[in-house]
Specification:
- The protein has one domain.
- About 90% of the residues lie in helices and about 0% in strands.
- The protein is elongated and about 65 Å long.
- Helix 1 packs across helix 3 and helix 2 runs antiparallel to helix 3.
- By secondary structure, the chain is mainly α.
- It comes from Vibrio vulnificus.
Length: about 90
Amino acid sequence: GKELDYFWHLALPVTALVIGNFATITLLTKNSFLDEIGKQYVVTARAKGLTERRVLYGHVFRNAMLLVIAGLPAALLGIFFTGSLLIEVI
């Protein structure tokens, strides 16, 4: 009874935190990919005749994910504390 009530009242704040975190991680990933696509090694890989799929997954994805994974803890910490403060105030 009591536990179910706790979970019921936790649903909305947890959903708000998850949506906020998802948006930030998506933005971080998008910007990382766009930065990597413009680099010289991508142009070189395309000039060598590699398929677009091979260029994106073999080169761009691998290097972009390094930046995302390295920046993720700092981003999540900031998002978590800012988001939880905002949710608690509201």
